[in-house]
Amino acid sequence: MSESLLPTLPPSGLLGADVQLASGVSNLGDEATLLFAERETEKVGGAPLPDAPVQEPLRPELEAQLAHVRGLLRDEFATVGEGEACLTCSFQAEDVLLLHLAMELRPGIPVLFLDTGYHFRETYDYRDRLTAEWHLHLTNLLPRLTVQEQESAFGLLYQTDPNKCCGLRKVEPLFEAVSKYRMWLTGLRREQARSRTALKEIDDFLLPGGVVVRKLSPFADWSTRDVWQLCAYFGIPLLPLYDAGYTSIGCEPCTTLPTDPNDPRSGRWAGKKVECGIHIQAGPAGGGDHATEST
Ligand code: SF4
Q: Which residues are identified as catalytic?
């Protein structure tokens, strides 16, 4: 993995008493607020951002969590051949950290990105940068219809029928692609949303048509802070949109700054829905329907 990627996060423990939060982020949740406060401390306090990966020692708890995930990946990868495990990546922090750890064992792991055509320019640029510098084995999953074709046929579905839009641009291409693998890695976390509280670290996920794929969510019980601290530890750059105050980042028309300080996903779909559907099982293969998504 390239050492030329510069970290965008400050070291932990930089929160000062006179921190000024950036405009528009003061209504974030406690954890998100703290993270942004730390970042703003770097700016307000005059301390320069580090120009080399932060290699501070990890606290013992996080070190144990990291060892657990590495062990889990090692054990699970031993059960499937090269090319039989894929990783879905929205290029948010959890997915990129999981990609980093998975590539320690499988540098050529297939990476699936849902290229809806509606992502932020920053997301596409970041995807392209990481793909080039980390030499990713990336597949951009395209919907059957281009954005222009869909809008000509149905208008702006993300406004009138976001469920149908997500179905066409995310669920269909993702399920079709994942059905070709035996194992599916995701960066999902229970803490991300109430709809994810039943998330299991390992689950059998039933796809339409009856195919079952072994789904791994190694960060299921991790906190946002765990993820960000480990990203800093490894010197992993994050999607620049976090700097603008976004706490959950999907398609541009359906993503705003969070509106609920206790819900990092409150900026998604303007409250019309909470999940796009790619993690909703076709049936009760692993304990019934439940929604668990990271995109
Ligand atoms: S997130 Fe919005 S734009 Fe993206 S596929 Fe779903 S409804 Fe469409």
A: 276
Ligand 1, atom 4, residue with closest C-alpha: 251
Largest interatomic CA distance in the chain: 57
Centre of ligand 1 from the C-alpha of residue 119, in Å: 9
Q: Which atom of ligand 1 is nearest to the CA of 250?
A: 1
Residue 258, Ramachandran bin (φ over 0: left; ψ between -120 and 50: alpha; else beta): beta
pTM comes to 0.78
Structural domain count, the chain = 1
Report d(CA 266, CA 195) in Å as an integer. Answer: 13
The CATH number assigned to the domain holding 135 equals 3.40.50.620
Per-residue pLDDT of the chain (295 residues; tens, 9 = 90+): 443 343 333 333 222 222 222 333 333 334 443 443 343 333 322 222 333 345 568 999 999 999 999 999 999 999 999 999 999 999 999 999 999 999 999 999 999 999 999 999 999 999 999 999 999 999 999 999 999 999 999 999 999 999 999 999 999 999 999 999 999 999 999 988 777 788 999 999 999 989 999 999 999 999 999 999 999 999 999 999 999 989 889 999 999 888 887 777 777 776 776 667 776 766 544 333 344 344 5
Look at ligand 1, atom 5, and give the residue with the nearest C-alpha. Answer: 166
Q: What's the CA angle centered on 87, arms 55 and 63, to 5 degrees?
A: 30
Backbone angles phi, psi at 251, to 5 degrees: -65, 145
Pocket-forming residues, ligand 1, beta carbon under 6 Å = 116, 118, 158, 162, 165-166, 169-170, 250-251, 253-254, 276
Structural domain includes residue 208: yes
Ligand 1 centroid, distance to 82 Cα (angstroms):
32
Structural domain including 146 reads 59-295
